[in-house]
Amino acid sequence: MPQLLPLRLLETVGLRTSDRPVNPRELARAGSAEPPTGIVDIDPAIESTGPLSIIAPRRIGESDLAVYPLSLGASVFGWTADGDTSLAILDRFAHLGGDFIDTADSYVGGRSEVLIGTWMRQRRNRDRMVVATKVGRHQENPGLGSVSIVRAVEASLERLQTDHIDLLYFHDDDPETPLEDSLATAEWLIESGKVRYLAASNFSADRLIEARILSSSGLPKFVAIQNQYNLMHRTEFESAPRIVAAAQGLGVMPYYALANGFLTGKYRTKSDLTAGARSVRASAYVNRRGQRVLAVLDRIAAEHGVAPASVALAWLLAKRTIVAPVASASRPDQVDALMAAAGIRLTRSQMLDLDRVSE
């Protein structure tokens, strides 16, 4: 069912619902409209600058999982965000309507999963959350061999204090293991109820095609993929992976959706950079192209009365295959701008401006 954007979020970010009530039939017609020539990747529902008064959950590929269109990245939990701060971030996320959490067994050696599990047990909200985690990088269970996958999933279930994982990613391709073997192991995990759906992170288009061919023999399908994709990093995804994702009906969850914080506007000059890992990665964008992108983001953000980060995420959400960008916060107050993105309706002109400046 469509979900109303919480009034507390609208008040926080300065958005107000339209005076005219939303007609579901109009939304349906807009969603089925054909895109104009030359704009094949922009969601055809984009029509006006007014904020959306209804935030509809988005379905993840061919699964029955429907989520708020923002996935809270938990890679910082137990790292740049300590335990108490991580729990406060999760509280803020859930308070604003969030229900999709992205983690991995390798994040801070599993500490991220532990904190999420502790939070869900304390808040008694496991049934309201969609939890995605990844296996394949943990030093104790590396790769996608059958034994590693099973052990990694069992360890994740223990850390998350749950009996199932909603969306299990293969964190990276494993060329040393036949993909058929990895999928067969995932099939057993799905049949046993430990995993609901399977996804792939950082897989090439060729391997995604191979996986779909193997699924024709009864092995589980990938329902989603996760690739690096943002205004500063476009070429890699916008080639073959985007075509395959659209053809296979895969839900796309872009990671580094804010380009390691650069698209928040935090890093505008070399003097803004620090010795932190995120700052070092963001430094690659502190150049003329990056400044041009930020200038357009600033202008559009001012037009909507929101933060630049919200516009950067809204740009992703307006792309046809995107379900929920993955973005993280190091403080609870940073969550508001992330969640606000789903309520922003960019015009075609604004989308094209962002497309052109970020080419």
Short recap of the structure:
Residues 20-42 are annotated as: Disordered. This is Aldo/keto reductase. The chain is α/β, with parallel strands linked by helices.
Question: Please, could you describe this protein's structure?
Answer:
Residues 20-42 are annotated as: Disordered. InterPro entries: AKR_Detox_Biosynth (IPR050523), NAD(P)_OxRdtase_dom_sf (IPR036812), NADP_OxRdtase_dom (IPR023210). This is Aldo/keto reductase. The chain has 359 residues and is α/β, with parallel strands linked by helices. The protein has a domain at 57-283 and 321-343: TIM Barrel (Alpha-Beta Barrel). Helices cover 39% and strands 12% of the residues. The chain has helices at 7-13, 24-32, 83-95, 111-123, 146-160, 179-191, 205-215, 240-248, 277-282, 288-304, 308-317, 335-340, 348-357; strands spanning 3-4, 54-55, 58-59, 66-67, 71-73, 100-102, 130-135, 165-170, 195-201, 222-226, 251-252, 326-327. α4 (111-123) packs across α5 and α7 runs parallel beside α8. The longest helix is centred in the last third of the chain and has 17 residues, at 288-304. 47% of the residues are buried. Mean pLDDT is 88; it is low at 1-39.
Unreliable segments of 5+ consecutive residues: 1-39
Strand content: 5-15%
Instruction: Characterize the overall form.
Output: globular
Q: How would a crystallographer describe the biggest sheet?
A: 8 strands, parallel
Question: Helices and strands: which structural class?
Answer: alpha/beta
The number of helices is 13
The CATH superfamily name of the domain at 57-283 and 321-343 is NADP-dependent oxidoreductase domain
Pfam families: Aldo_ket_red
Organism: Leifsonia virtsii
Protein name: Aldo/keto reductase
Domain NADP-dependent oxidoreductase: 70-358
